[in-house]
């Protein structure tokens, strides 16, 4: 069960990191978002995906 949670966290982190790197945000914002995602593996990716992700039209 623990392995499954870490695997899910890693997959979400990879998705969030790639999304941050592809975004049109300035470099300082990208660095802060990447730090949040990497420091808090379970919470960081979820927080980014639900609160900070740029919405496509």
How many helical elements?
Answer: 3
Mean pLDDT: 87
Distance between the termini: 38 Å
Structural class, judged by helices and strands? Answer: mainly alpha
Structure description:
This protein is mainly α. The chain has one domain (11-52). Helices cover 81% and strands 0% of the residues. It is built from 3 helices and no strands. It has helices spanning 2-22, 27-39, 41-52. The longest helix is centred in the first third of the chain and has 21 residues, at 2-22. The radius of gyration is 11 Å and the shape is elongated. It starts with a helix and ends in a 5-residue tail after the last helix. The model has no long low-confidence stretch (mean pLDDT 87).
Short key terms for the protein model shown above:
single chain, 57 residues, mainly alpha
Task: Summarize the structure in short.
The chain is built from three helices and no strands.
Summarize the topology.
Blueprint: H1 2-22, H2 27-39, H3 41-52
Helix pairs in contact: 1-2, 1-3, 2-3
């Amino acid at each position: 069960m623990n392995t499954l949670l870490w695997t899910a966290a890693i997959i979400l982190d990879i998705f969030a990191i790639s999304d941050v790197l592809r975004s049109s945000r300035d470099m300082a914002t990208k660095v802060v978002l990447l730090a949040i995602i990497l420091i808090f593996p379970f919470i960081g990716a979820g927080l980014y995906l639900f609160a900070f992700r740029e919405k496509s039209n």
